Backbone:
């Protein structure tokens, strides 16, 4: 009602109108003039207090501000300063006599209510008085660099809030906020109005809001949540606690939008996060049955996602979470390794294939966690990587993981492998293998095993796609020419069907060749081919790898004639029995000119395995150099044609040896490369750079690097500095 | 000078014109010093002798002149002084390095670069035994039981001297295998530490 009395669009009239007072153009005395003004002010104050007063007309106003005008412009006594001071005093007086007492007598919620009312009134008072004293604003005030009228007015009210020790504003406000937090409905408008006082009174600066209200509010909030958290952490499970925390944060955010200043939002949320999450973070994560470990174990993806959301808000909050994640994945992986070890010790060879599959599945599973629950955060990618690096580099029962992966790929790709997959599935699986390969430090070992197995697949596996292997295409063409050659030269024909695969050395793994004494029949074959090959090219040398050859023999056994598919080595041994009934181990070895290892292996396959083509005397399960052998005329099988496998030599040791040798060269080359460009370098940086350079293929052993450095010193590539033994110099 | 030469020829082999091992033995007995004594090695160092077991006239002249001795009696008297001179830190490194190279066999074309373990053990005892008795004893034990190295090269030889000088023994507290110590010393320290637990 009072507010409507003064129209906002009230304009100050121009000062051309001069109202003459009583004595004509005479000066106005200070007290005289002030009396008039004060009367007007008092009337305004009464109106504000709601006391009965006649309306304040525009004439009343004109009288007052004209008085002010005159008192400021008259000469010689310009009372601007006094008027300025008395303006302020009027307001102070009003506050001290009316406002302060009324606040003091109110308690609890009524105090802030009164304050809001009084503030509104105050704003009106200041506006009215500013109009009356308006003439001071444009000239006097700026000339003396004084505070403008409005500001003076607000400061008076500010001082009230400051100096009123009796009026406790905080408690009633915080009690209201607490009630709302506890779920009760409160008068939000009241809070908003009080908060607005703090904002408005700053007149553009937020100091008052922050110092007089916000600080205490934040402290109060912190204390509140601290109490709550200390209870919840004991009573609630981790997921439940997190739900509550998330809810609290949501509510506090809403609170800001309802009645706090927006600048409080980050500070408020930070306080809440601190009390709920930072303080109790570790306890929460490590809760025995419901903490992070348990959630991972039980695949509680929703809870984990919530955990990520909450902990990503607090400083370094994600570090413990990612650490637990890493521990968990490492644990799962290590359990797989143990499982595989157990299966291997129980002679279940399929355990290794299954192991690799399970590792791939584990990777898929936790990669999904990283992208879904943990929003692809780098900390979690890193944790996953480190976890896999730990257990992927543990071998299983003597086989390195590099070898296991290579064997796994071989099984998928070869015909007759343990897995039958569509091309698409093969491709998909191989892509996943590549991902796991990234964690293995011995990548060069994997490459070497893979290469060996690939060569085997290309040479022996009918299903292998070898169209793009030029060497094999050439070999096929070669064979065709050979057959043509035989067709054209009847006398060259050895009488046995012969197929030769010619490989280019260097494209293929090195295979050892031994000087096997071939049976007479085969000798002719070899010679014929050699002659043919000479017609094609004079510059190439052929080395025969009999260990890779196969042979189809016709065995005339008593029960029935059978076809035997054997290796060349086995065939050579069997054919000896065409001219002798009984042969000793040493005779066979002498005749064949092979090593003990090979002889033992091949005789075992013919006499102690599934198909006993030869009878061994004594009839033990292993071959010894004192054994004798006879042709088993009584041998038979329900099939007409059987393949007698010769288990290949375990190439593992050789592969590892080869890789070690390659590594020595690689380390040498790397050291030389580094030293050549740096000229001088200290030991530790040299080692570090070397490790970094080679890291793509393998993790060099520090001792191995040291050894290579010493070797290079003795070969005069490097020297140790005379004064600093830690420094090396490149010798050009 | 003439007197020095005369003494030379009294020990030298008539046909080769050098003092050979036999001559050196005779010299040692006259000096009343065992021919495996380190002082003979020191004498060789002073002479800058190149081939173990042999002294040339030039080397002889060089050594005796430096020691201001023109007969055996004076030479014998000069030995304690020579010992002191060698043991001075600035000279000792040089002597120690010399000791190794002196023992390398082979000629100009096929100069050996390393010395076999057994000879090294003897040489260590001779050259360093008096100064670092326990380190030398332990290291010799280690060299005999390890199988990584069949020979020792100059870098490793010098490394051991540095080891004796810089590393707390037997505490080994300041040994850091991440530094550029020769690998054989890393292994030696590992072996020692295992023994200590």
Residues:
């Amino acid at each position: 009602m009072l507010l409507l009395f003064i129209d906002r669009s009230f304009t100050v009239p121009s000062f051309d109108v001069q109202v003459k007072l009583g004595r004509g153009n005479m000066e106005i005395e200070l007290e005289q003039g002030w009396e008039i003004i004060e009367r007007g002010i008092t009337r305004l104050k009464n109106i504000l207090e709601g006391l009965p007063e006649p309306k304040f007309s525009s004439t009343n106003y004109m009288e007052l501000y004209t008085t002010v005008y005159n008192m400021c412009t008259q000469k010689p006594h310009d009372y601007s300063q006094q008027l300025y001071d008395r303006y302020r005093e009027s307001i102070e007086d009003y506050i001290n006599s009316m406002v302060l007492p009324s606040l003091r007598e109110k308690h609890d919620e009524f105090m802030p209510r009164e304050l809001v009312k009084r503030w509104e009134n105050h704003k009106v008072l200041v506006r009215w008085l500013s109009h009356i004293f308006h003439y001071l604003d444009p000239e006097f005030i700026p000339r003396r660099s004084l505070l403008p009228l409005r500001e003076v007015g607000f400061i008076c009210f500010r001082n009230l809030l400051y100096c009123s020790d009796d009026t406790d504003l905080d408690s009633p406000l915080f009690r209201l906020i607490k009630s709302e937090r506890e779920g009760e409905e409160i008068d939000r408008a009241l809070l908003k109005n009080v908060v607005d006082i703090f904002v408005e009174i700053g007149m553009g600066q937020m100091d008052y809001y922050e110092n007089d209200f916000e600080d205490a509010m934040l402290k109060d909030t912190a204390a509140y949540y601290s109490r709550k958290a200390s209870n919840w952490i004991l009573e609630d499970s981790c997921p439940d606690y997190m739900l509550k925390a998330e809810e609290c944060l949501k509510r506090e955010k809403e609170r800001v939008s309802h009645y706090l200043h927006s600048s409080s939002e980050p500070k408020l949320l930070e306080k809440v996060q601190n009390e709920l999450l930072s303080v109790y973070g570790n306890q929460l994560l490590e809760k025995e049955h419901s903490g992070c470990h348990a959630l991972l174990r039980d695949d509680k993806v929703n809870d984990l996602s919530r955990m990520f959301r909450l902990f990503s808000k607090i400083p370094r909050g994600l570090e413990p979470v990612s650490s637990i994640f890493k521990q968990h994945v490492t644990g799962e992986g290590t359990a797989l390794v143990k499982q595989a070890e157990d299966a291997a010790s129980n002679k279940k060879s399929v355990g290794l294939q299954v192991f690799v599959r399970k590792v791939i599945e584990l990777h898929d599973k936790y990669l999904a966690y990283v992208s879904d629950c943990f929003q692809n955060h780098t900390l979690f990618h890193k944790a996953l990587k480190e976890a896999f690096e730990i257990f992927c580099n543990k071998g299983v029962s003597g086989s390195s993981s590099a070898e296991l992966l290579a064997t796994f790929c071989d099984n998928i790709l070869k015909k007759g492998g343990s897995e039958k997959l569509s091309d698409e599935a093969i491709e998909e699986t191989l892509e996943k293998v590549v991902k796991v390969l990234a964690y293995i430090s011995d990548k060069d070992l994997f490459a070497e095993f893979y290469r060996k197995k690939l060569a085997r697949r290309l040479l022996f596996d009918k299903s292998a796609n070898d169209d793009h292997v030029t060497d094999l295409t050439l070999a096929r063409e070669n064979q065709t020419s050979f057959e043509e050659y035989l067709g054209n030269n009847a006398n060259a024909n050895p009488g046995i069907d012969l197929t030769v695969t010619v490989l280019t050395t260097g494209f293929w793994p090195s295979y050892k060749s031994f000087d096997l004494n071939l049976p007479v029949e085969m000798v002719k074959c070899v010679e014929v081919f050699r002659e043919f090959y000479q017609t094609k090219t004079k510059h190439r040398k052929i080395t025969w790898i009999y260990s890779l050859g196969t042979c189809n023999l016709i065995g005339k056994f008593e029960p029935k004639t059978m076809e035997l598919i054997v290796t060349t080595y086995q065939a050579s041994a069997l054919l000896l029995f065409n001219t002798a009934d009984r042969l000793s181990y040493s005779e066979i070895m002498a005749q064949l000119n092979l090593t003990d290892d090979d002889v033992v292996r091949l005789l075992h396959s013919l006499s102690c395995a599934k198909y006993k083509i030869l009878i061994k005397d004594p009839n033990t399960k292993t071959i010894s150099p004192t054994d004798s052998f006879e042709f088993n005329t009584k041998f038979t099988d329900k099939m007409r044609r059987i393949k007698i496998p010769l288990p290949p030599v375990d190439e593992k040791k050789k592969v590892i040896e080869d890789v070690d040798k390659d590594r020595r060269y690689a380390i040498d080359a790397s050291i030389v490369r580094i030293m050549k460009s740096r000229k001088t370098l200290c030991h530790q940086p040299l080692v570090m750079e070397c490790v970094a350079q080679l890291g793509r293929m393998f993790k060099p052993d520090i001792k191995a690097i040291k050894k290579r450095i010493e070797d290079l010193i003795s070969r005069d590539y490097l020297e140790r500095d005379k004064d600093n033994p830690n420094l090396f110099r490149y010798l050009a | 000078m003439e007197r020095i030469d005369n003494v030379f020829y009294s020990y030298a082999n008539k046909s080769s014109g050098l003092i050979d091992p036999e001559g050196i033995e005779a010299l040692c007995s006259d000096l009343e010093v065992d021919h495996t004594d380190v002082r003979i090695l020191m004498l060789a160092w002073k002479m800058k002798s190149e081939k173990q077991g042999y002294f040339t006239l030039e080397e002889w002249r060089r050594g005796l002149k430096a020691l201001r001795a023109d007969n055996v009696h004076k030479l014998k008297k000069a030995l304690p002084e020579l010992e002191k001179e060698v043991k001075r830190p600035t000279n000792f490194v040089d002597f120690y390095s010399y000791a190794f190279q002196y023992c390398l066999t082979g000629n100009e074309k096929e100069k050996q670069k390393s010395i076999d373990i057994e000879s090294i053990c003897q040489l260590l005892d001779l050259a360093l035994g008096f100064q670092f008795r326990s380190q030398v004893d332990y290291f010799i034990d280690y060299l005999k039981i390890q199988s990584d190295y069949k020979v020792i090269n100059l870098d490793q030889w010098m490394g051991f001297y540095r080891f004796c000088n810089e590393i707390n023994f037997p505490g080994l507290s300041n040994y850091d295998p991440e530094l550029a110590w020769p690998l054989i010393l890393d292994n030696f320290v590992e072996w020692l530490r295992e023994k200590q637990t």
User: Anything to note?
Assistant: Chain B touches chain A at residues 113-114, 153, 155-156, 159, 162, 178-180, 182-183, 186 (CB under 8 Å). The beta strands of chain B are 114-116, 151-153.
